[in-house]
Amino acid sequence: MNVNETNASQHRIWVTGLIHKEAYFLLPELQEVFENLTIIKPIYDNAPVFLENIYSDIADDITNDIDLQNNLAKACKRIRYCSDLDCSDIKKLKDSWKDNFQKLQNDIEKEKLIFALLMVRKAKEYWLKITYPEWSSSEENYKDHIMTSIADFYSARDDNPKYHLSVFFKVLYQKFLQGK
After folding, report:
1. Domain extents in the chain
2. If you write DSSP's letter for every residue of the chain in order, what string do you get?
3. pTM of the prediction?
């Protein structure tokens, strides 16, 4: 799950781990960003954004994901660190993910499970379901505001290998701007 920062600068191609860039907007630590927005609060499914609800929806739709069905074995190799997930078929993956998510109390283990979900399921459609009904300007303008807040979150964490994007930009900075 973490980036190996020691050899990161030698890579020509980076694979970030999560299947869609929008997944990086939905990581558990970002709940505080959504809660602390100073302008109109975003809405998901007629309620304030609560990321665990989004994860539940993503998991509920596992069996409808044709790409995942066709590439289940390959996808499950990416999440083999979650030994409690049953990857023998797509329905069992869904059920085992949901069962584990409901019973886990440990935030670190829960986070691993969320990360595994976001490694095999696309998050873009769920990101797009976040709305701003009372916002008077364009939706694009509001999304820019949220993404700026998310960028601020990541920029403050460039020393943590858990945050792939932060480490990636730190490595780019060191490699190209500082000539290292």
Report:
1. 5-177
2. ----HHHHTT-SS---SSSSGGGGGS-GGGHHHHHH-SSSPPEETTEE--HHHHHHHHHHTGGG-HHHHHTHHHHHHHTTT-TTS--SSHHHHHHHHHHHHHH---HHHHHHHHHHHHHHS--HHHHHT-B-TT--S-HHHHHHHHHHHHHHHHHTTTT-TT-HHHHHHHHHIIIIIS--
3. 0.81
